[in-house]
Amino acid sequence: LQDRRRTLHAATVEAIERLYSDRLAEQVERLAHHAVRGRVLPKAVQYLREAGSKAVNRSANREAIAYFEEALVLLDELPQTTQTLTEALEIRMALGPALIAVKGAPSPEVEALYLRALELVDQLGAGASRFPALWGLWFVNYTRGRYQVALEAGERLLETARKGNDTGELLEAHHALWPTLTAMGRPLQALVHAEQGLALYDRERHGAYAFLYAGHDPGACCRWNRGMTRWLLGYADSGLRDVQDAYRLAEELKHPMTTVIALWHTAWVHCQRGERELAIASLDRLISLARPHEFSVWIDTSDALIHVMKRERTSVNAIAELYRQLGSAQYTTAWRRTACICVLAELCADSEYADEGFQMLHSIPEEHRGAFGAPEILGLEGELLLKQEQTALDEAKRRFQEAIELARDRGEKSFELRAATSLARLLDRQGRREEAHAALAGVYGWFTEGFGTADLKAAKALLQELS
Q1: Which end of the chain is more exposed for a tag (fewer CB within 10 A), N or C?
Q2: d(C-alpha 241, C-alpha 97), whole Å
């Protein structure tokens, strides 16, 4: 009976191929189904691969993963020839972005996939696939917060790309460096690479790169990264325009993952500007788009952030639950988790839960405390010290001063302004009004835009009080 069934399934494949010879792409899912059951393995692999690619194009990532993984299982049953190994390599490279979308880049499955892809590159001498395979491993290290390893990998990718004449590889090499440097707390250097990305990006030529490199468009990525770095560097209005441009490009491309990430960065910039309602609206839109596509690593953190920014649940238990929700998103990018913890620690400071705020900030791994948001962490610790113990004025002052110095060294004027505002308030409490005014006036006077943001409004009001 099994033999008869196999024969019927194989015959069905041949019949569909004859009947729909002019539009086989419409039938690849059915062809894959019958070829697998008919044990027509070469055709089964071919049609599973094509069905997986179709699923990727409509962002049906779990479906794509199932097709690609079944194809790989069948390839293992075939003799290991150059053809079958090449096919296995190509399927793995196509599988990578779908796996990142569902599992998260820091997951062990993604790392194992790119390590195996690199083994196949070496085995086959398939030089064309080496760059994207190495890029995939860079992305794993970057999202895990292994920043020095990621930086070295990005620099090697850039060196390799500069030796060739492929503008796409050069674009993706810069793509490896602009987020790494931002995550390391080096926004000025990150901005240089984002600008290079903008200069290189061609929508027609590079629009399909999302399906090979991490599942998102590099042109949108350099825009939202430039928006982040511009906010950090003190250009809040320019930063907002950049993330809005990234979102518009993502919408035009009709690529859900790119749109989701653009919305997250838009929400982050709105949050930093003090525009919480606009940030919540972006996160609501993100969740509504991410849920049907099962982008779970983006949903959990966004949902937690919405509750934090609404300030509706401020009991200790509610804050602990939000922290657990952030912590359970274990495959969230490391710097993004730090950013979320800082927002939650700010809520703790506002709600007089100083001990809980300290616990959250101390949960940030030591190797990440000096990376993205380091001045913000120091400033929040200063605020929490004042809530925890009113006699800790000297220690809080020291944290604010450290935050100011670190932010100034990095060029992160927005964080410098926040810390200087906190320091000025503290000095004012001690009756040192002239010193308080001097501490804030210099950095406030540097700014040329963003005067409608919450931080600059607060700094201006404080300076007027101190005058």
Answers
A1: N
A2: 28
Distance CA 126, CA 7 (A): 37
In this structure, what are the phi and psi dihedrals at residue 89, rounded to the nearest 5 degrees?
Answer: -65, -45
Question: Measured between alpha carbons, how far is 132 from 246 in angstroms, rounded to an integer?
Answer: 23
Conformation bin of residue 372: beta by default, left when phi > 0, alpha when psi is -120 to 50: beta
C-alpha distances (whole Å) from 147 to each of 61, 185, 190, 368, 411 are 28, 10, 13, 9, 20
The pair of three-digit structure tokens given for residue 367, joined into one six-digit string: 């190797």
pLDDT tens digits, residue range 223-271?
A: 999 999 999 999 999 999 999 999 999 999 999 999 999 999 999 999 9
Cβ–Cβ < 8 Å for 439, 465: no
Per-residue tokens: 217: 């468009």
Contact 45, 87 (CB under 8 A): yes
Q: Copy the structure tokens of residue 255.
A: 């690529």
Distances (CA, A) of 356 to 56, 286, 316, 334: 42, 28, 8, 21
HSE-CB for 120 with a 13 A CA cutoff: 24
Report DSSP state, residue 302: H
CB 328 within 8 A of CB 300: yes
- pLDDT tens track for 266-287: 999 999 999 999 999 999 999 9
